[in-house]
Amino acid sequence: MPSLSESEQPTTGAQWALLGAVTYAALQGGIGSGEGSAPSLPDPNLERLWRSLLVEFNALHLDRVRARLGEQLPDELFELHWGRESSWHAEFMARSYERLRQDLDTPVTPQRLEQIVARERYWGGLHFLAAARRARAITAHYQLRITDPRSDVEGGAIWRISPLKRTHTADCLAANGRAFTWRILRFYNPANRHPECGCTLHGTLGVRVRLEDRPPEGMAPGFDIGEITPPTLFHFTDVPSASELLAGMR
Ligand SMILES: [Zn+2]
Asked: What is the Å distance from ligand 1's center to 156 Cα?
């Protein structure tokens, strides 16, 4: 929590202390904790600023990311990814708060305030877009892994760059068309490359490929997409035989 030094902003110190308290209370109370929990701020401009930054963005966007991860990932992986997104979000909000604190340290015109809000909303939009893309990629990778019964043992996926993008980073180009084991793809995958990465992973079932167990040269590690234990459904040994099924029907 950034500390507010009274000597730096003697006239607005109380307002900032309140805004800061509201920001961090909301962050600690959970993302999207709602409109009702935020007390009114003394300055209508700050009040407006606060609402456009926290209420709209959190409630609308990050809750959707949470819902997607929650619906499509098992609890363990949900906790891993949501924990990561939440801490990035807290960091994002802390930076946003710091920018606001500096910009509004001295009184500003309403027009200037609008510009500041617009800027923060723009950054917020990019922040949530990136979170949504990560969620989409992570859930897609999970689906791909559980669909492949060989899964983590000897499975893998083929990396393809997007034909819809004109430019690609050097590491995505190096990975293009190659098949990697999930041991590698846990740390090097399109969910953690760069914003706007249109790369996708494709299953290797029924495709004869040589799986590589090393990342492409020069590729920086990303975050771990987590250990996956395929659900029971995909353990073929658990499927009853035809005679067992018939016996059960008698
Ligand atoms: Zn890429």
From this structure: 18
